[in-house]
Amino acid sequence: MSKTVPTPPPGFDDLSVEEQIDFVQSLWEKIAASPEQVPVPEWHRQIIRERLEAYHANPAAGRLWTDVRTDIERKLRDR
Questions:
Q1: Taking burial as the number of CB atoms within 10 A of a residue's CB, which of 23, 50, 64, 71 is the most buried?
Q2: With contact defined as beta carbons under 8 Å apart, do 54 and 46 qualify?
Q3: Residues of the chain with pLDDT under 50
């Protein structure tokens, strides 16, 4: 990182929690607009390798994303 930014930035603590969340969301959207510039840590790559190896060793052990998402949505609705 080329320069240090104060954490939190000036004025952040004066915002309501909702405004703070909006601020952080807008920062993330700005970062996500250029995903090719976001570095991927080596430990993320290692986890992906491990999970791919586990999948290749036993493909039937996994679940379809659509099934997982449906389960999550059901649990959230039932709260």
A1: 23
A2: no
A3: none
